[in-house]
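Are you able to produce any protein sequence you like plus the matching backbone structure tokens because I've never seen that pairing?
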Amino acid sequence: AEQHPPANLSTAEQIRQAITNGDIESALTLLPSLIDSKLLSAEEWILSGTVYMRVQDFTKAQQSFSNAIDLNPKRAYFYMHLGLSFLAQDKKSEAEYFLNLAAEKNPENPTFFFQLGNFFSRYERFDKAKRLYQKALDMAPGRSQFIVGYSRCLINMGQEEEALSFLKIKCQMNSEAAVVALYASLLQRTRSYAEALPWHNFKNSSRLKNTDLRSWQKKILAQIPEAEMRDNLEYWIYLHWKNLKTDHSLSENSIV
């Protein structure tokens, strides 16, 4: 059922909660009462711009972010928001300018370098993107979105083996679904189901049926032409099946 923000919250808090709940329509409906009720703080202008971004009203989003900067020009992430609003419209030079400005104003925040990496990846300047992702990872090596961004950049550069080696190390320390799923899908695409199998990490394994395992066995065994390897591989699969944690699944539907 759709959740609406409690009426006893402030308008700004109701808008934040509506965004959290994915109820952008309610957030947009509440926005005029926030804007018309008082002089907004910088943070409230950012909130306003976020709502406008969600409905792709980029003119109002940019005005909101600019208002926030006018009120507090020292906050680096305000410039990031403005840069991302230009990027959403494919306004390359403006986006690059404001994303760079955010990183210059706060070089201690890895998110700004990550967003710059995304910018250069979008325009296929992968060498520069790679360096920026590396810089973000140096500052926050366990952040899953940084790991995924860097890995996808390597893949786009044709450096799949480097991406595999990097992801293998990261998966041993980071079990977040996005990281594990990318590693599993890359293994599956470049090597085999057998290598990808233990890295597929999905929930609700209690719903998994034996038919799913048999389906996986069939797919894996079809890739092994040597008859003498088949028994060993079946046993290998059995061991992994037996030792899986409750949050792992070998469902055929888990392929990414």
Summary: The CA atoms of residues 80 and 99 lie 5 Å apart.
